[in-house]
Amino acid sequence: MKTKILIGVVLAGALALASGCTNKEGQTEASVFITVSMDLQPGFINVGVPAPVQIQTITLNSALKNPDANDPQGFANTQINSYTVTFTRTDGGTLVPPPQTFGAGVLLPSGGQATLTNFPVLYASALQQSPFDQLLPFNGGIDRETGKDEIDTKFNITFFGNTVSGQRVQSQTASGILIFNFAGFAGSAQAAR
What we know:
Elements: H1 2-19, E1 32-39, E2 44-46, E3 53-64, E4 78-89, E5 100-108, E6 113-122, E7 150-163, E8 168-170, E9 174-181, H2 188-192
Parallel strand pairs: 2-9
Antiparallel strand pairs: 1-3, 3-6, 4-5, 4-7, 7-8, 7-9
């Protein structure tokens, strides 16, 4: 009987600790957390143009978790090594491209920011694959799941890296919207001349 009570107390304590951890910035051991903002998102993407989908400007901001701390030696500077982009549909469809992972190579000072220009969120080859290939005229030009001539998606982007002192860092996840359609092939006007 004592064993059952002890197990119950231990399980209740574990549940209380697990449910009390809501600090998303505390999910990594690093002394900094990184926020992501994306301005000037592309919005509409023509699947007839085989080019990577890029975000014109992404700003990463680093802040120390302890606002009273400082980092004069730069041990909390973060080397951003990669980022991952995942997609979900907002139009009722379910088919999405697989997660896309890209290298970054950006040094983000603790308490500072870094501005990334024209970083991709989707490889050019992904525009010629499912589900976007359905929007091409020779494939019918219609998304088979929704019956529409466009595919509406939300994308989530998360950055990963390490501080100079070796602690892993994961940014907050930022989101954006991309709408894919077919607006003609690249260079088709020049080919018609």
